[in-house]
Amino acid sequence: MVTQKRYITVEELKTHNKEGDLWISIQGKVYDVSEWVKHHPDGDLPLINLAGEDATDAFEVYHPGTAWQFLDKFFNGFHFNGGGRRWWRCSKMNSGCCLCVFVLGV
């Protein structure tokens, strides 16, 4: 069975910015961190402040490389920024590759 990819617009992402409904985008993927906020090692404030937004810079600055492996269980869809493009995490990112952009076939 093939699952359909879900694309989340900037507008939709912005609506998930309240306690109990916290979504963030990190390198083009959207994560529902509504439950994780209770367990976040640095408390709830960083996630509450970044909810509904792209949190890529904050995630990369404040988390070790090993943190990437924990994101998948919170994955909710791909962040679609409306310009026919989406950001994604390159498979070579860990080897120093820059952040890549590709054009969707729409």
List keywords for this structure.
106 residues, alpha+beta, 3 helices, 7 strands, 17% helix
Provide a descriptive summary of the structure in words.
It contains three helices and seven strands, in the order βαβββααβββ. The chain is an alpha+beta fold. The chain has a five-stranded mixed β-sheet with strand order 1-5-4-3-2. The two termini are 23 Å apart. The relative contact order is 0.22.
Give the SSE layout:
Blueprint: E1 7-9, H1 10-14, E2 17-18, E3 21-26, E4 29-32, H2 45-50, H3 56-62, E5 75-80, E6 85-88, E7 100-103
Parallel strand pairs: 1-5
Antiparallel strand pairs: 2-3, 3-4, 4-5, 6-7
Alpha-carbon Rg, integer: 14 Å
Query: Which whole number gives the mean pLDDT?
Result: 81
Strand content: 25-35%
Count of separate DSSP helical elements: 3
**Which range best describes the helical content: under 10%, 10-25%, 25-40%, 40-55%, 55-70% or over 70%?**
10-25%
The largest beta-sheet arranges its strands as 1-5-4-3-2
Give a count of the beta strands, DSSP E runs of length 2 or more: 7
Which term fits the overall shape? globular
Instruction: Characterize the main sheet.
Output: 5 strands, mixed
As residue ranges, the low-confidence spans are 84-88, 90-106
Give the structural class. Answer: alpha+beta
List SSEs in N-to-C order: EHEEEHHEEE
Distance between the termini: 23 Å
